[in-house]
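<purpose> Linking amino acid order to shape
<body> The protein record starts here
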Amino acid sequence: ATARARLDAVCPRVAERLAHAPFECVPCFEQLGETAFGLGRRDEAIAAATAALACLEHTPDEAPERVAATRARLQAERAWWRGDAAAAAAALRDAAAPLREHAGLPWIAAELDAVARLQAAIDAALARAATPSQGGPSAMSPIAADGRIIAR
């Protein structure tokens, strides 16, 4: 079976089994979304991001900053996968802002790393789109010069 097919089968079971542990549920759907997006299946990627956001509906009260940051990061991924670079960048700022003052804590450092990875992916795609010699706006690039994802 393909990685996507395995994740399609596993993630709903993970969500059900770990409904009390949202931060264990999110990574499965996030990986599913990244896999779908990498395969050019934007609608599936967006659906996976929405499912990951649903994991956060029942979150522990003791980690409101983590919940807010994770929610904002997932919203950034979903916006990026929809083709809205501006909304993705705004959501990434929202994700990082409440975390910076506590960056020394392990889970916060990990969340900031996730934000940085997504920002790097967006920056790289925008740079490729802006530089034709580097695979910029062309039939080969799925990213328009303004950061929108070109429908295929």
